[in-house]
Design a protein that fits this description.
By secondary structure, the protein is α/β, with parallel strands linked by helices. It folds into 2 domains: 147 residues, 2-Layer Sandwich (Nucleotidyltransferase, domain 5); 176 residues, Nucleotidyltransferase, domain 5 (2-Layer Sandwich), CATH 3.30.420.40. Helices cover 47% and strands 19% of the residues. It is built from 12 helices and 10 strands. The strands form 2 sheets. Strands 3-2-1-4-5 form a 5-stranded mixed sheet, with helices on both faces. Strands 8-7-6-9-10 form a 5-stranded mixed sheet, sandwiched between helices. Helix 10 links the parallel strand 9 and strand 10. Helix 9 crosses helix 10. The chain is globular, with a radius of gyration of 20 Å.
Length: 330
């Protein structure tokens, strides 16, 4: 038996094929398939190219895949668009068995290896997803960069721009971030920032999100505004987790597993320490754990679980070993 997992995101789309033992047969990465950032035509082309390439690497074909799980950014939010994406996927996979869902489900499946609990995604965008032991599902956040995505890399990139502009014109005292910003972005005159964002970056979501890296660099040298921005991001994720706990009816005596995925968490202690502190204020037994698998491996594992209806610890162990070997961990 073989299973396909697809994890779409705001920056890239990953494809992986595994067998029933968790051995990785093929893996590839493409650009984002997020149709709102690009187009439905781009979504179709990325999925087709990625599926064909990962099948070649795995020496198989779509028709030989037993089940696929496809995590799609933005899926489930606009009914007309969901119908259009379903038609595209149906045309690609034909009669093969598959399930489509929001990419937050793939992130949960990876971080918690399909166990009950909550996962926070903080990449280009931000969203939370959880499942309780009875199979009840719920999501929070993920309203998009204009309506929400609080705590995301885009949100942090906007914070970096805000801090720099305020330090540039005197609304805030100048800190290390001001000099790092000018150096990294080759800004000669402070107002060059406007042309950079509007003309060079074209206000693109993924380009703004990259500025979160500068914020992290500033935090590393002790910039108080950068450190506070990560604390604010952590608070937004805390609110998402709190909402999910309430919606999923976790009992006060029940241990709730919480994990995370996405590039924002590469900032380590600047995001995780305040998040742990906020979670300690909740009157519930929460265990914040490191992600077990990547989202794309989670997607493949979820495809296996949906098809076989089995809980196989061995396949998780093998996937862990395989991910290290294939060097596809985020």
């Amino acid at each position: 038996m073989i299973f396909l997992g697809i994890d779409g995101g705001g920056t890239r789309t990953e494809f992986i094929i595994i067998d029933e033992n968790g051995k990785i047969l093929g893996h590839t990465t493409k650009a984002t398939c997020h149709y709102k950032q690009t187009s439905l035509q781009n979504f179709k082309e990325i999925i087709i190219d990625g599926v064909n390439e990962v099948c070649r690497k795995a020496d198989t074909t779509i028709s030989q895949i037993d089940y696929s799980f496809i995590g799609i950014p933005g899926y489930g939010e606009i009914l007309d668009d969901v119908e259009k994406m379903d038609l595209i996927i149906n045309d690609i996979f034909k009669q093969n068995s598959f399930e489509c869902a929001n990419d937050a489900v793939a992130a949960w499946a990876g971080s918690l290896a399909c166990k009950p609990g909550i996962n926070i995604v903080a990449g280009t965008g931000a969203i939370g997803f959880g499942m309780n032991k009875n199979g009840k599902l719920h999501r929070a956040g993920g309203w998009g960069y204009f309506c929400g995505d609080e705590g995301s890399a885009y949100w942090l990139g906007k914070k970096a721009i805000e801090i720099f502009s305020k330090e540039a014109d005197g609304r805030l005292e100048q800190t290390q971030l001001y000099d790092i910003f000018k150096s990294k972005l080759n800004i000669q005159n402070d107002f060059d920032l406007i042309d950079l964002i509007y003309t060079t970056y074209e206000m693109k979501r993924d380009k703004i999100a990259e500025l979160a890296i500068i914020l992290h660099e500033a935090a590393e040298v002790g910039d108080k505004f950068a450190i506070d921005a990560f604390s604010q991001s952590a608070y937004e994720h805390y609110l998402t987790i709190k909402a999910l706990i309430e919606k999923l009816d976790f009992l006060s005596e029940e241990k709730v597993l919480v994990s995370y995925s996405g590039g924002v968490f590469n900032s380590g202690r600047y995001i995780l320490e305040p998040l742990k502190s906020y979670l300690d204020n909740l009157n519930i037994n929460i265990e914040l754990i490191n992600p077990i698998l990547t989202p794309v491996a989670g997607a493949a594992l979820y495809a296996y679980k949906i098809f076989t209806r089995e809980d196989n610890l061995k396949i998780v162990e093998t996937l862990l070993e395989e991910e290290v070997k294939w060097r596809i961990r985020y």
